[in-house]
Structure formats: structure tokens, C-alpha cells
Amino acid sequence: MFTVSNMRTLFVALMGLSFSSQVLAVDDALRLSELADVSTGFASRSGITEMDDASLGETLGQAGSLIITDRITPNSLTGSGNANTYANFTFHRMGLDGKLDFNANMSKLQLGCGGVNDLLTGSGCDIDIDYVSFMGINAAGDAPDPTGAASVFKMTRPFIEIAVKNENDPARREVVGFRIGAQNINGALGMGREYTTSTTNLERGGTCNPSATVGAGVAACHSGINRISGFLSIEMSAAIRARANLMGFIDTDLDTCFGRMNPAQFSCGPGTTPFFVDAGGTRLDTLHVAAAKLLISNIDIGCSWWNFLVCEPVQFFANTLINEGYGQLKIGLPAVHYLLTPNTQNFFLSFQRERVSWPNYSKTTPPNNIAYDACNPAYGQLSPRCSSAYAPAANTGWWLNAPGAKLLNINSPDRLQLPGTLDAGTLLSLLGPEGQLIIDNPKVSLPRPDNCYGSAKFC
Fold it and tell me: pLDDT at position 23, please?
């Protein structure tokens, strides 16, 4: 019951609000008709007009509103006609117009274990990660925040969204998936731990071999991302020192790099063109850079006086012609102990019973003017997602979408001893994008960031 005793009190109480006679009752001091006359007169003098239910439903994000809601109709955004887009759903979004800062550790993150995806990959989980940390990122945006537990992982406008199929048909209407995410995130993810002695890997099995530089012995020294389902568009940079045996009798040293390195190493520095790789699929366990363009600073095949006639022509060829090339790099995901997400848009975690192309938060195509982003045409590495207002289709099950992740300044602490023999044909293949030089499970320096607090031993 709302009562007023005089006209002045009523005027102060209204202050721009228009009340319906159905929701307001007054006592005998002011009759209902008088209240209607006051409200109507105030509205006419203030320029206030009545809004119907449809107009109210279309009004979003009013000043001071904490709750944001949105509805996106099927196939209504740019790029819905792409062959790989599954957007024939109605999307309902509910979120907060605010920021969420947090710092958190989880000893085990598993989602989607068993189920239909076992038919594709065998038993396992869609997402399976040991020792996960959500923490801050440094000011340069190229490493986790060194303050660890004192830093924050930032989410701007967090939301939850559902995808509805056949919304206008009550008999066949169904929810096919949901997702949680944010308009923008800024932070770093720490994963797993590294073994440094010849011990059994408690999370994954196998025995760590600290002296190994490539292969299974290196893989057993790490735990972290066991399996992940999702789409990752990652900016990468690496400087690799390798050694291979050429044609069975010459040891060859190869110093190579790609992407922007800070500090500069070999032929790569902060001003080098960024390098991007898209990785997507269900239950991935390897990050495979299939055609990395390599800047080669040195190929030293170790010529000496006794093999001068055979070696010098090959050395001349290597020094003169091979300054750039292509190679393949396979890094087991357990060795990736952190991912950076600096000011990343369209980051989300979803679950769907069939493939869904979730809309970008902005409902438009990704911006094309962000530095060090794959959708910036200045780098010449545009992918189809850059021309669509939808994210790449999420597969059935749990799915992580991280289109702006970064994995920078990868180093090989020791010179990698590549197995087998590097023949002349493999050396020549470096000149084309089908380069046959494959570096599998290299020993790289990607230390897990410390996010422990006080005496806690999470790490």
C-alpha cells in the first residue's frame, strides 16, 4: 500500500514515474482520479510517453541496469551461410553488466568423461587438465603475472547463453546446448607440473628422462593438459636449437625461429611478423604446427679438413640458399604449462548435444584492427572465422573456445638431438610448405607459473 497525504509529497514521490491505477492505491486524502490527473499532467510536461510491452522487450542495457539480456534469431548474423556454420538456433543470453575478478586453483578439471565421444576417440574426457590456475597476466601481455596469487583473472560482462532448436514449435522445441563466457577476458591459465628427475609421472605414467631432448622421455616429464576439446587460435613464437645427422656422417646444427621473440633470438625479435596457428577438434593431446615458416640464422654442418671435398659444397648450398624454410613442430599438450589470454574476446566454455556455431558476443565479425591478432589483415594470415559473426562450430560434448590465446617466447634450453638421419631430400624440403623436418615432443622452456599462496603447496 502506497499512501500520500498531500500534493507536494506526491510530486516528490513521482519524480518522472508514471503509475498505473491498477498497481497504486491511495487513501481518501487523494482520490484515484486526482492521482491520474497529476501523473498525466506531469508526463505531458516532461515529454514522457507510454511504452507498450513489445517496445519494453526490445530495450536493453539501460543506464544503471545490472542485468543484460539478449535474443538472437536463427541464421540472422553475418556468415550464417558458411558451410561450417551451424546457426539454425535461437540464442538466449543472460549476463551481468559488470566485471568479475578472481584467482583460483583446481587440482583436477574433468568434463565430458565417457559418453558419445568415446565412439570417436576411445575412453577419456572431453576436457581433462591437471592442476589448473586462473591468474593474472603481466603488463606486457606476454607472460603470466609474476605476483601469482596476488594477481587477478579478469572477466568483463560474464554471461550464460542457451541454444534452442525449433523455438516456435512447442511440440519439437528443445534446448540443445548452453555456454558460459564473457565479452572480454584478461589473464593467464597455468596448467600441470614439470618433473625434473628420473621419476614416474604420477598423473600420466611413464618415466621422466631429464637428459632427453625430444620424444617420449621428454613427454613423461610433464603433466597438465591431458585432453582438450575446443578451438584455439594461438599466436606462437619459438627459437629452436637442433642438431641432426646429415646423410649419415655429418652432424648438422640448425638454429631457427618463428614469430615475435622478446628478447630477440636468432632471426626473430619483437618486430618479427606474428605467427598464428589454429587448432581445433575433439580430445586433442598434441599441438601440431604443420607448416611453420622458419627464419634460419645458421646451418653448420661441421666441415673439417678431412671431408672438405664432400662437405664444403653442401655447406655453401646451406649458407647461400636456405635462409627461410618450413618445418613441423609437434608439442605434447602436457608440456604447455600456461596459456595467455590478453584482452581476449569470445572466450567461452560450452556443452551441446549437436554441433552449434555460437554467436560472437558483439554479434558482428571480429575486429580487424587489433595488434597481434589473427584477424588483422596486416599479417596475411586471415582465417574463415574472421569474416563470420559466429565462432567456429563447437563439436558435440564439452568445448572450449579461445580465439585469442598466446604461447610466446618458447625456447629450447638444450640443443635438440633429432633422431635418425637428415638426408639431402629432407634438407631440400625445408624450402616448401611441406617441409619434412619434424621436431616431435621437443624439450622446451615453458615453466609452470607459481600461483601458490602462503604455505599452500598446490603447485
Answer: 36
